[in-house]
User: Which sequence fits this backbone?
């Protein structure tokens, strides 16, 4: 019993040391269908970690049967190219845009086509182990044309993060 009591502070200290130190703000999360079937969706958002040093999104996940991954869009030989990424650097204190024709989250395996207004939940996991739940609302680029990207009100600006509704 004495050994167990003596170990408790060390175990507690180890648990505290292992806790993620990064706080992350995710804003302007939205999604759009990427194919005619409507079962593959790209998610876009602004990610700002508050941390010391450097940080990165190291993975993204979604509840089965969905799969989620990080991608980079580019144009090569007059064709759109999607390249899987192992991580996305997110400099501390600086907004990182996941955007069309750039880095983004790809979600596939949707059992039916998405409709405007539906939501797609994913979890971003960072290098230090911090995890942020993000729910992006499905919209279109046309719907965003008249929306100020720095103050997105309306459908594209709504999101839920860790159970809190954000505008």
Assistant:
């Amino acid at each position: 019993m004495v050994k167990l009591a003596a170990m408790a502070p060390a175990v507690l200290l180890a648990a505290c040391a292992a806790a993620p130190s990064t706080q992350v703000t995710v804003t302007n999360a939205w999604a759009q269908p990427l194919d005619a079937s409507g079962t593959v969706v790209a998610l876009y958002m602004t990610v700002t970690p508050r941390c010391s040093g450097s940080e990165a999104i190291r993975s993204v996940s979604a509840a089965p049967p969905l799969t989620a991954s990080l991608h980079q869009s580019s144009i090569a030989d007059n064709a759109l190219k999607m390249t899987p990424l192992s991580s996305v650097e997110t400099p501390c204190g600086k907004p990182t845009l996941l955007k069309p024709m750039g880095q983004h989250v790809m979600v596939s395996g949707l059992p039916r086509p998405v409709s405007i207004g539906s939501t797609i939940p994913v979890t971003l996991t960072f290098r230090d182990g911090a995890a942020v739940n993000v729910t992006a609302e499905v919209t279109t680029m046309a719907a965003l044309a008249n929306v100020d990207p720095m103050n997105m009100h309306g459908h594209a600006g709504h999101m839920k993060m860790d159970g809190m509704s954000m505008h």
